[in-house]
Amino acid sequence: MSTRPRLILASTSRYRRELLERLRLPFDVMAPDVDESPHAGETPAALSERLARAKALAVAGRHPEAVVIGSDQVADLGGAPIGKPGSHERAVEQLRAMRGRAVVFHTAVTVVRLATGHERSVRVPVTVRLRDLSDAEIEHYLRTEQPYDCAGSAKAETLGIALLEAIESDDPTALVGLPLIRTSAMLREAGIDPLAP
Questions:
Q1: Comparing 43 with 197, which gets the higher pLDDT?
Q2: Residues paired with residue 109 on neighbouring β-strands, in sequence order
Q3: What is the Cα Rg of the chain in Å?
Q4: How far apart are CA 32 and CA 126, in angstroms?
Q5: 91, 24, 60: which is closest to 190 by C-alpha?
Q6: Separation of alpha carbons 145 and 196, rounded Å
Q7: Residue 133: is its pLDDT beyond 70?
Q8: Which of 32, 44, 58, 127 has the CB geometry, 3.0–4.6 Å to 74, for a possible disulfide?
Q9: CA distance 103 to 78
């Protein structure tokens, strides 16, 4: 009988932890301790891919027998990265800049198991179209939700859905921070099948 390898989520994000819990697999969570500063000239897509891989490898280096998931999300507004606002004032600026426009959320995932040489990465873009929001709507939303730890200052899984005109994606949980369709496929390749008894 084969033993399922240990699974580790290399993330401090409670959103990613909650998403991975949906697969009903036992897993540990470890902080990857990776500098998330963008490199000069780095696109939002490339930044998300580099950070997802760096997070997975940082934890996998300490646990080579484990299957490690690293993930990162970078919002892209006209080619410029939009990060977590961290404050009300910055969130207001972000939502004002994004209103009436399309924003692409690049969510990258890397699954690594160093002991077997397994490494696979994917990036799942999600296009979000925001309504032409009034300042009053922005203020009410931010005071109600306080999404200051979310890239792009919004949580589409709760009241933030009212900010939007449309979401375009083939892996809907990618917008929250972990594309579970792709992640499930990558885990199967690494030896962990969420549907295996």
A1: 43
A2: 71, 122
A3: 17
A4: 25
A5: 60
A6: 38
A7: yes
A8: 44
A9: 8
pLDDT number for residue 92: 97
Catalytic residue among 33, 72, 76, 193: 72
72 is catalytic: yes
For residue 75, give the 3-state DSSP assignment: strand
Section 12-37 average pLDDT: 95
CA atoms within 13 A on the CB side of 42: 16
Q: 172-182: per-residue pLDDT in tens?
A: 999 999 999 99
- Sequence-distant (6+) residues with CB within 8 A of 193 are 187
Q: What is the band of 3 on the pLDDT scale with cuts at 50, 70, 90?
A: confident
DSSP 49-64: HHHHHHHHHHHHTT-T
Round to whole Å and give the CA distance between 141 and 4. 44
Pick from 178, 154, 149, 174: nearest CA to 164: 154
H helix or E strand, kind and range, residue 137: helix 135-145
Q: Where are the alpha helices (DSSP H) in 14-82?
A: 14-21, 44-60
Quickly tell me which residue has 């203020």 as its tokens. 139
Closest CA to 114 of 188, 184, 190, 35: 190
Q: Mean pLDDT over residues 55-61, rounded?
A: 98
In DSSP terms, which residues pair with 155 in a beta bridge? none
Q: In this structure, how many other beta carbons lie within 10 angstroms of the beta carbon of residue 79? A: 9
Tokens of 41: 């000239």
